[in-house]
Amino acid sequence: MNRKILAILAAAVALTLPWLVSFAGGAAAGYSTLVTVTMSGIGVLGASFLLTWGAETAEKDVPRAFAIAVLAILAVAPEYAVDALYAWNAGQFAGTPRGIEAGNLAVANMTGANRILIGIGWAGIALFTIFRSGAATDPTVTRKDGFLSDTISLDKDIGLEIVFLLLATVWAFLVPLGGGIDIFDTVFLVTLYVAYILIILRGDPEEVEENVGVPAALQRLAKPKRIAAVLALFVYSGLVIFTAVEPFAHGLEGLGKQVGVPPFFMIQWIAPLASESPELIAVAVLVNKARSTAGFNALISSKLNQWTLLIGTLAVVYSIALGQYGVLSFDDKQAAEIWITAAQSLFAVALIVNLEISVREALVLFLLFISQVVLEFLILQEYIAIGLSTHDLLIGFAAVYVVLALGLFISRRKAFVRQLKGASRTIQEAFSDTTSETH
């Protein structure tokens, strides 16, 4: 490994050290809010580079989809930690106002994270892919005639993720009908994600796209050293992200409160935005290296694991804190939050079912998301009076998402059928391989 590669690795590690040393030594606890946000944010940036390099290197030895899934899980681990904290508090203080509020916050934080991932993540990365420097030479970017018609082509093998995400989305519409997140939600959603991981693990390592820089150098190492390097990058970057993002999120909450943003609004939107930052940075790095396909695969995989594992494990954490089985309940407002999140997810799946997304579609995805958040904020702060409660607003936007999604599914029904058939073949091949190995 040459000096240039070592210098690049050292620079990324150097970005993480001020925060990690401060955290380990206890000095971080005495920092001001602004210093905490700055240092932890820089640490997350450095860790995101390391995490991305680890995932790219791993593609030489495991199926790319699995490497991307690991990247997605590690990148959103802080979101799991924050949500688990609220679910734990809900169980510990069950039946009290504090416990009820914590349960609602767990749902609010989870739905906020999921909607940010699509409304800002999917839309923002799509626009960045098309308009960044070098997009003209990116084979996934297609220039088309018409207003904002340029598109990004997605991976042809992403059909399995699309179908599994659709299944999780359909189930999510049913969650509020049970009065809370219960054992049935946990079993179905966690089983769905485990099945997905088992299926993609059955695949063979694909021919690795030609890499440059750090991943290319690491892939040239002997296999034992390469595997050790990948594990080290995953563990170290995961540790930095896990320790840095919660202080980063709470720091942003503190800064928001100083300018008059309601705490509940901060927990639903600002904290998840901070915890999603490693994922978005990692994907932006992939896209900037002309690996747009891998970048979008990571976003879709991240949405799938949040929409299954994150929801499914909340009831488990709640029950452990409670000391017995319990249903993580929430109020009508949070039921509407789940419905609009499911509706947005349905619309997003409909957008990519034809394996491409255009500038126009990305802008619609972003504008629908941001307009709902802004309108809700204005209503909460009583800056406007439009005769609607925030609950009514959420239901209205959910209806818009569903209508748009159904229209797209109808117009793209042939593409949808192709994705169903492709996912079915992938599943059959995985099980047939398993069956043949047992005989």
Could you characterize the architecture of this molecule?
With 439 residues, the chain is an all-alpha fold. The protein has 15 helices and five strands. The strands form two sheets. Strands 1-2-5 form a three-stranded antiparallel sheet. The termini are far apart.
Summary, kept brief:
The chain has 439 residues and is an all-alpha fold. It has 15 helices and five strands.
SSE arrangement:
Blueprint: H1 3-25, H2 33-58, H3 64-75, H4 77-92, H5 97-131, E1 141-142, E2 151-153, H6 159-174, E3 180-181, H7 183-201, H8 213-219, H9 223-258, H10 263-288, H11 292-322, E4 328-329, H12 332-352, E5 356-358, H13 359-380, H14 390-411, H15 413-437
Antiparallel strand pairs: 1-2, 2-5, 3-4
Helix pairs in contact: 1-2, 2-3, 2-8, 2-9, 2-10, 3-11, 4-5, 4-9, 4-11, 5-10, 5-11, 5-12, 5-13, 6-7, 6-11, 6-12, 6-15, 7-11, 9-10, 10-11, 12-14, 13-14
Largest sheet: 3 strands, antiparallel
By CATH, the topology is: A middle domain of Talin 1
Task: Give the number of domains.
Answer: 1
Overall shape: it is: globular
- Percent of residues in helices comes to over 70%
Average pLDDT number:
86
Tell me the CATH architecture.
Up-down Bundle
Could you give the distance between the termini? 45 Å
Secondary-structure element string: HHHHHEEHEHHHHHEHEHHH
Report the structural category.
mainly alpha
- Order of strands across the main sheet: 1-2-5
What is the number of beta strands? 5
CATH class wording: Mainly Alpha
Could you name the CATH homologous superfamily?
A: NCX, central ion-binding region
Percent of residues in beta strands:
under 5%
Q: Count of DSSP helices?
A: 15
